[in-house]
Design a protein that fits this description.
The chain is an alpha+beta fold. The chain has one domain: Gcn5-related N-acetyltransferase (GNAT) (Aminopeptidase). Helices cover 21% and strands 30% of the residues. It contains 6 helices and 12 strands. Strands 1, 2, 3, 4, 5, 6, 7, 8, 9 and 10 form a 10-stranded mixed sheet that branches. It has a two-stranded antiparallel ribbon with strand order 11-12. Helix 3 links the parallel strand 5 and strand 6. The N terminus and C terminus are likely disordered.
């Protein structure tokens, strides 16, 4: 999938020259380090890049569900779908978790993240998982079809996730009995990448990986942008475009 946009020579506002051609595709073998570097740059630190690296090494990684935005051979955007579980009354159900979403700082606010998310959702259309979950800004993710999870019978994996930020898309394989609690990969918990932490009462060990990036993990929305009242995105730490 190729997307063309025109930018000013400074990389800022739209203009009528300097075409930017972006190809949206799966991550390729050998690009692991490039993806890690992109994610670290997008968030100004290593914790989210470590999240991706550890998910890659876990049983919850799904080959082919790591997608990138490629501009003239340079990776400028990345999204990742990994395996989660829905603890439904009838049985455990495999679901997908969209997290993280990263866009290089030089290419933010250009629609790269939004187009990459749409591309990823199109690519998983034939997969068997009935639900995709994320934590993120309701205003941003509604455009892709995400809706509040609580309104559809789903429970947050942590009470530290603000209700409006816990969002879901129900896909074709979904059946009405599929309700219950989302269970994240152990990797998110090991890195303390779930929900919001109180900056005053949280122990230092819980804050270290988050604060040193200069952003509260659960309040990053837009394009790696810190906001005061955003819905929070927990493991869906996002650099949206």
């Amino acid at each position: 999938m190729t997307f063309r946009r025109y930018l000013s020579s400074s990389g800022g506002t739209p203009a009528t020259r300097d075409p930017l051609d972006v190809r949206y595709r799966p991550e390729r073998p050998g690009e692991e380090a490039l993806v890690s570097a992109l994610v670290a740059e997008a968030f100004g630190g290593s914790i989210v890049a470590t999240l991706v690296d550890r998910l890659r090494a876990s049983a919850d990684w799904i080959d082919g569900l790591s997608f990138v935005a490629d501009h003239e051979g340079r990776l400028i955007g990345h999204i990742l779908f990994t395996r989660g579980l829905l603890d439904a009354p009838e049985r455990l159900v495999d679901v997908l978790v969209l997290s993280p979403v990263s866009v290089s700082t030089a290419f933010q606010r250009m629609g790269v993240g939004a187009t990459l998310i749409r591309h990823g959702l199109e690519q998983i259309a034939a997969r068997p998982e009935p639900i995709v979950f994320l934590e993120g800004s309701p205003g941003y993710y509604r455009r892709f079809g995400f809706r509040p999870g609580g309104e559809h019978g789903f429970r947050r994996p942590s009470l530290r996730i603000p209700e409006p930020a816990f969002q879901v898309i129900k896909r074709a394989p979904y059946e009405p009995w599929m309700t219950g609690t989302l269970v994240y990969s152990r990797v998110f918990w090991d890195l303390d990448c779930v929900g919001l932490r109180d900056p005053v009462s949280a122990p230092r060990s819980s804050q270290s990986g988050i604060r040193r990036e200069g952003q509260e993990f659960g309040k990053v929305v837009g394009e790696n942008e810190l906001v005061e009242d955003g819905g929070g995105i927990g493991p869906g730490k996002v650099g949206e475009g």
